[in-house]
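Re: pyridoxal-5'-phosphate structure - here you go.
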Amino acid sequence: MIARSPANWQGRDAAGEPWQVAMRTVIGDVDELLGLLGLSRGDVDIDDAQAFALRVPRAFVDRMQPGRADDPLLRQVLPRMAERLPLPGFSCDPLGEAGAVRLPGLLHKFHGRVLLIASGHCPIHCRYCFRRHFPYAAMQPARADWQRVFDCIAGDPSISEVILSGGDPLSLPDRQLQWLVERLAAIPQLRRLRLHSRLPVLIPARITPQLLRLLGDCRLPTSLVIHANHAQELDDGVAAALAPLRRAGVTLLNQSVLLAGVNDRLDDLCALSERLFAIGVLPYYLHLLDRVAGAGHFAVAEERVHELHAGLLARLPGYLVPRLVREVAQAPSKVPLQFPAAG
Ligand SMILES: *Cc1c(COP(=O)(O)O)cnc(C)c1O
Ligand code: SF4
């Protein structure tokens, strides 16, 4: 059994360091990354002149396989020449998010739920990120803007759930997060709180005892949607950090993006679902790639997508099959993929 961590989880990494150290020492240099993996520039078509530069936490690099230029974790973060190819239909704001902005940092697209850009910062740069061209920093509310955000939510009784997103909301220090969560919990009509964060996977030490208390004590039932694309990301350190979150009553879900060369094989997707369940997380969404400029080399052909989904349905219990969805600008929800009639 893996998903048992000591009841005295300390929120430190293997070297005893707190998460802030890992945030400060992310790798931003291509040669350093390649050196750690025993690879050289000749092994991959690197492009290190990109504005959306390499950024990856060391704890994530530790899970990459040395000597493998095609490692599924490495492929998610390595800037490549292929990103320069302009592709028809791939744009800088593929979700039309600009139109959903109610206030700086507040997106309202779907009924009953608002999304808050709680932090513009993210400790990783995923090459397929649909927000890679999004003006994060400009979107993040300044201190004085927060009150307008709370007032706006409180003034709309249809809103019952707030999603803290980003960037990565867990990039915020616990003190700031606590302030934010308390202010939200004070809005009477809210019934649920949700966090969308990749940090529990990237830097498991981010799950601090303070964070556990803060989420465990909140009056709002809380869910945490983590983001892992491959079972190889979910090592025992991640399992150990998630276990106390579950014990604190947080509902754990995962979202993934279907990515060519990362997880577009049936065995990989099944292994991801199985591993998620083993560590107490249910698969929630499998997103089709957003058509964001620079990410075309991650696209999976439509026919193959159908094949993979049919394969998942045939191999896994229903609750381990993630909902296969795409974002459609102006649609009232994420849109489930339509399947050709069976038979
Ligand atoms: C994805 C998303 C949500 C959450 O959608 P769920 O289907 O509830 O997970 C909410 N707001 C925005 C703007 C989103 O992009
Ligand atoms: S973790 Fe999410 S928000 Fe951060 S770069 Fe990756 S896809 Fe984008």
